[in-house]
Amino acid sequence: MRVLLAEDDDGVAGALTEALYEHGHLPARVRRGEDVLTRHRQTDLLLLDLGLPDVDGLEVLRKLRAVSGLPVVVLTARGDERSVVRGLRLGADDYLVKPVRLAELLARIEAVTRRATTSAAPAPRTVRAGDVEVDLDARRVTVGGAEVRLTTKEFAVLAALAARAGTAVSRQQLMDEVWGDAYLAVSRSLDVHLTQLRAKLGRPEVLTTIRGFGYRFGD
Ligand code: CA
């Protein structure tokens, strides 16, 4: 299996590359977060360090998840609860705190890969609620067949909700996914975007507010 290793520490990267190779994988190593975003299509799994020199690993994960369901195992020195929770919320399949035992890492990689292949049936990428249709791949939204033009952020908020249609999504999670680390500044901004979305869609019943928690797309 092809494993992309994003790790700026040469010692750690060398040891992991060797271990992966010995266990029959095909490791490739990059040092920077930007390299992950340009190379993620050429791998089967990503091992992601969070302390990267250019972009924070959680930001890399957030950007990656907007375009890819690639299995991701976070491997980091950051064991604080907030980082772990954010990593998992942003779509990491597993989260390991360094120093990690090699046998455990390899077992976790196998477990994540197994889950990814058994649930390989792709989720429907066009979501409907009433006559509102959100095409997550084409990034198109139609209401009653007519296209509605949304800004990038408006679409991101709607897509984050539509991808989990019928499920309540917390404000915290929406802000993590759409704004990433800047979320502290944007609590008000989320309200503004939702107000604009509701106005543009003209279907207030499609976006439900869950008081004290967040929002839901569809029933
Ligand atoms: Ca690092």
UniProtKB/TrEMBL annotation:
Residues 124-219 bind DNA. One of its GO terms (cellular component) is protein-DNA complex. GO terms for molecular function: phosphorelay response regulator activity; transcription cis-regulatory region binding. Keywords: DNA-binding, Phosphoprotein, Transcription, Transcription regulation, Two-component regulatory system. Transmembrane segments: none annotated. Signal peptide: none annotated. Residues 124-219 form the OmpR/PhoB-type domain. PROSITE patterns: OMPR_PHOB, RESPONSE_REGULATORY. Residues 2-113 form the Response regulatory domain. InterPro entries: CheY-like_superfamily (IPR011006), OmpR/PhoB-type_DNA-bd (IPR001867), Sig_transdc_resp-reg_receiver (IPR001789), WalR-like (IPR039420), WH-like_DNA-bd_sf (IPR036388). GO terms for biological process: regulation of DNA-templated transcription. The modification 4-aspartylphosphate is found at D49. This is Two-component system response regulator.
